[in-house]
Amino acid sequence: MADEALFLLLHNEMVAGLYRAAEQGEGENGRCTTKLESMGFRVGQGLIERFTKDTARFKDELDIMKFICKDFWTTVFKKQIDNLRTNHQGIYVLQDNKFRLLTQMSAGKQYLEHAPKYLAFTCGLIRGGLSNLGIKSIVTAEVSSMPACKYVVV
C-alpha cells in the first residue's frame, strides 16, 4: 500500500514539476508531454524485462496484449484492465474504468482538460513494454469521463 502511495505522489510531482518549468519559460507544454511519455517508455522497457524473464515466449500479438492487460497492469496499478478490444488488424483498445492516476482528481468536467497530461507517462509505459516485446506501436489516451480512460494501441 505504501509503494502505491509513493508511486502516485512521484507521478503527480513529475507532471507538476515539468509543467511548472514550462510555465516559467524553460520549455513548452508539448515538450512536457513528450518528456513524460519518454520517461514512461524507459520505465516500461525495464519493467517488462523484469516481469518476463521467467515466462515462456508469447504465441502472437494478442497474447502479448493479454499479458499487458492482466499481469503487467496488475503489477503496476494493482488491478487488471477492465476491457480489451481489438479489430484483429493491429488496433487494440485498453479500457480502465477507474484508472488509479485519475481517481485522485475530481470527477467534475472542469478537470477533464488536465487529464491527458496525467496519462502521458502511462502511454509511454505501455509503448515501452510493447517495444521490449517486439511490437512497435503508437499509444494514445482518451478520457471522456473521469476517472475512466482508454488507451488506443496502433
UniProtKB/TrEMBL annotation:
Transmembrane segments: none annotated. It is found in: Endoplasmic reticulum; Golgi apparatus, cis-Golgi network. The keyword Ligase does not apply. GO terms for biological process: endoplasmic reticulum to Golgi vesicle-mediated transport; nervous system development. Its main location: endoplasmic reticulum. Keywords: Endoplasmic reticulum, Golgi apparatus, Neurogenesis. Gene3D superfamilies: Trafficking protein particle complex subunit 3 (3.30.1380.20). Pfam families: TRAPP. One of its GO terms (cellular component) is cis-Golgi network. Component of a transport protein particle (TRAPP) complex that may function in specific stages of inter-organelle traffic. Specifically involved in the early development of neural circuitry, likely by controlling the frequency and amplitude of intracellular calcium transients implicated in the regulation of neuron differentiation and survival. PANTHER family: TRAFFICKING PROTEIN PARTICLE COMPLEX SUBUNIT 6B. Belongs to the TRAPP small subunits family. BET3 subfamily. This is Trafficking protein particle complex subunit 6B. It comes from Pelecanoides urinatrix. The gene is Trappc6b.
